[in-house]
Amino acid sequence: MDLKIKYLIVAAAIIIICAGGYLVYGAGNSNTITITGSTSAYPAVEALANAYMEKHPNVHITVSGGDSGVGINSVRSGKVDIGTSSRNLTSSESEGLTQYVIGKDGISIIVNEKNPVNTITLKQLHGIYTGNITNWNQIGGNNSSITPVTREVGSGTRADFQNFVLGNNTFGSGVQVATFNYGLLQTVAVTPNAIGYIAHDYLNNQVKQLEVNNIQLTQQTVSNGSYPLTRQLLFLVKETPNGSVKDFIDFSISPEGQSIVNNVEYNYTTSNIVYNPTSGIGPSGG
Questions:
Q1: Same domain for 110 and 209?
Q2: Can you give the residue range of the structural domain that contains 186?
Q3: If you average pLDDT over every residue of the chain, what do you get?
Q4: Phi/psi zone of residue 48: left (φ > 0), alpha (ψ -120 to 50 degrees), beta?
Q5: Does pTM top 0.85 for this prediction?
Q6: Domain of 207: which CATH number?
Q7: pLDDT tens per residue across span 22-52
């Protein structure tokens, strides 16, 4: 009887040790990284996440949007591991955060594909969005009223556009508002006299992109800063990252990661963006 009890005790101990080892092994090899923020950065970040998970099947990365403000506030409050922003942070926003530049993005100025205008200046954009230029014939186009479209408040792309184009001025009363990059793109695509702006990685050939100050938006002009509407895409982490979060960031800024970012940014087609605003991106965007 005593021998049987000893066997039972030994068997139970073996089971407990094996179960404990399994749990430790599983915990050390299964990680989740949460990312949220700018929808301008979303396509590139999603591509980075997918590529990283292929290499690291035990790591699960969830990517969602909202806008740059959401990314900044979410990472500061500890709700996510990484926040994304397509605008520069204020001094108070950046306190306690580590910032990583994961790429550069050009803001595309877009018009309806039937619009004969091919180039525009920052001064002309300023006039259109402040309400001082109201007809396309004032800048070499047809005799038709201009329908300027902007992004919603909270958008990092809107904040950058205001900084580049309007300075201290405000939008005119005739400017329409569209939510997220995709919403603005669709508005311009179906509105003959519209003009708008989007993150370049949302561009497709349903609209026409204009040169700005006679400079075409390309990978080269964005990389060297000669395109006048160039901004940085940022990863934001509270304090100092470690573990899988650090490893993912290192991958993102490596040559392989940067190749993925550039491929998303510049190799667009008519169906480049597979984007459903109801699937976690949120009602606004960066």
A1: yes
A2: 106-223
A3: 85
A4: alpha
A5: no
A6: 3.40.190.10
A7: 333 333 344 999 999 998 899 999 999 999 9
